[in-house]
Amino acid sequence: MIASVLPTYSRAPLAFVKGEGSWLIEADGRRFLDLGAGIAVNALGHAHPALVAALTEQAGQLWHTSNLYQIPRQQELADKLVAATFADTVFFTNSGTESCELAVKMARKHFFDAGQPDRVEIIAFEGSFHGRSSAGIAAAGSEKMTKGFGPLLPGFRHVPFGDHDALHAAINAKTAAILIEPIQGEGGIRPVPDHCLQGLRALCDEKGILLIHDEVQCGMGRTGRLFAHEWAGAAPDIMMVAKGIGGGFPLGAVLATEHAASGMTAGTHGSTYGGNPLGCAVGCAVMDVMTAPEFLPEVSRKSGLLRQKLEALVAAHPDVFESVRGAGLMLGLQCRLPNTDVVAANYEALLCTVPAGDNVVRLLPPLTISDEDIALAVIRLDAAASSLASRSEPVRA
Known about the structure:
Aspartate Aminotransferase, domain 1, globular, 12 helices, 4-stranded mixed β-sheet, alpha/beta, 36% helix, 2 domains, Aspartate Aminotransferase, domain 2, 17 strands
């Protein structure tokens, strides 16, 4: 008999009932240090007082009206995002998947309205993840994502990650956009070098095509800048956002330049829930915290501290770990043992981490994690690695 909750997840045998900052409390009372943050969602930790206050205040006033009407908190959040980024305009969604759907539609509609209706193809990269909608899985293209869900949405071309020649060869008269994560998350914490992001920007300008960044996981302060592409100084035309923007409340957005969004006129897209008063009240509070002068420099400082400790951890356990990769507080431990074994051992050490592709364990702590909790996290990682080293054989050369 099928479970009452559709069994599409392989869940850990844990049931958390409360969160406090960087900590999760299990139903049996055990306290786990959270280095997953809901897969980079709880950017300000659990039960952050500013977010609790914003949600509580708004919940006592107005929850939902639909986008048939003006929504003052939506306008406020859009203004904050426009003021802090490259964008001229924002559409609010409920998730990264919905943001992907709009980004694809926006790029295609741009060229349709420009009198080039054949320019519908979007180039994406192997190892990418853009959500689990029809457009999202077609953009990723991997067998793991697409098997059994055909026919796939057409109009996507895939090139190997980091293969410049293949990218240039894929561009043709039908190309509308290039879609890329500045740091691949599900693909194994693989950063795109700054000079490559700059090269992509120049290439899109040269060819007259749009550049779409998926910053659902690497955005919202995760790298020490509000968005990861800012380190390269190479802004996209369209950007997908979600996860950290709501701090745990379901919220996403598509940010765009006026040029890229020119085809999106009244009636071309919509959402019943997207940008409702509750979500946008929380989003405004997140933006206020993250844009305070001291916040992002502290993320960078803490990321340096964590990375230094992780490099020492890898050196101490060469039979378990191969290397550290990533940027900011979006870091990965490439493993020599199966990463699922490492994640399981971390649970035994009362530590939450997240598996990813390329045999990587993701470390995505709240951006508010303290120095003391960073030190404790590495102590627990060390304990987990020590327990594995004596009972497992390496799987990587």
